[in-house]
Amino acid sequence: MSIQRKKFLSDNMIWLVLIALVIIMSIANRNFATVSNLTTLLTGEAIKGIMAFGVAFAILTKGIDLSLGAVAALVGAVSGALVQPTDFAMRTLSSGARLPAPAAILIGLLLGAAIGGCIGAIIAYTEIPAFIATLGAQLICRAAAKMFSNRPVSKLSDDYRFLGSGRVLGIPMIVIVFIIIAVISWFILVHTRFGKSLYAIGANSQAARVAGINVNANLIKVYVWCSLMAALGGVLLAGRSGSSDPSTSGLNYELDAIAAATVGGTSHTGGVCSVTGVIAGILILGVINNGLVLMGVDDNMTNILKGIIIIGSVVLDMRKNIKKV
């Protein structure tokens, strides 16, 4: 095999895998390749994909964020409560005016950013593992969401729901938001000093410090970004379903986001991340989920297959890094 062909296969393997999966699922079930089903697939995976763009930044710096789903639940409950009708008998907030959707969404995003700032500061200045810090944040945020409301936050205003369930020129707004976040993520990583600093930190944090990079400040920004994406996911999730359940909203979404970033080639050894790879990763998992559901495969078997894919992706990544040493 020529060097050019090997390089092509290496650079595009994940997209070839995606194409192969689409062909297989289309043959296995004729309903898979329909426009309505593919639209359902994209809208179903868009929120997890947005969260994947967040956690990919953390993984790039040898970190992780396990709080994404809980942050989404908390933000969805809080921002959703702010747009409930004042005369609604089951209104979460006993007093206060109903806010316009943009104001409620902004408050939710600011709450997410604040949570991320706290997580990032803890990781940066105490040097405890990101796994522990974000696991603690997960428990705190999920409990806070349940304390805020002991029942689903429902009857959300139509303008609030637009981001999650509206359409523009027939395209689901949730997919448009996903594309916008993908472009922003790509721009940050490729064309900003912050993005280039993250690659340096992931490759060797001590060398990055010596080179004059403010590692602590950048780590804080990373987790602000992670939680901001989780907060946006919470708003979209509430808007899509019309309510936000503090107990179940966003549950295990962080696992799918981490899986998408991992399958997409974001290295847990740090220093390697591609936005296009993350997109391919979330689409691969989406195709698997959607295709197996159409085929009537049990959810447990789907999760087993996803687990095998995640472990396999990490093993392959580790083997590639060993070869480079």
UniProtKB/TrEMBL annotation:
Gene Ontology cellular component list: plasma membrane
Origin: domain of life: Bacteria
One Pfam family named in its UniProt record: BPD_transp_2
Molecular function GO terms recorded: transmembrane transporter activity
Main location: membrane
Bilayer disposition of the protein: Multi-pass membrane protein
Transmembrane segments: 12-30, 50-83, 103-124, 168-189, 222-239, 272-295
PANTHER family in the record: ABC TRANSPORTER PERMEASE PROTEIN YPHD-RELATED-RELATED
Protein name stated in the entry: Methyl-galactoside transport system permease protein/inositol transport system permease protein
Species: Faecalicatena contorta
Native organism taxonomy: Bacteria, Bacillati, Bacillota, Clostridia, Lachnospirales
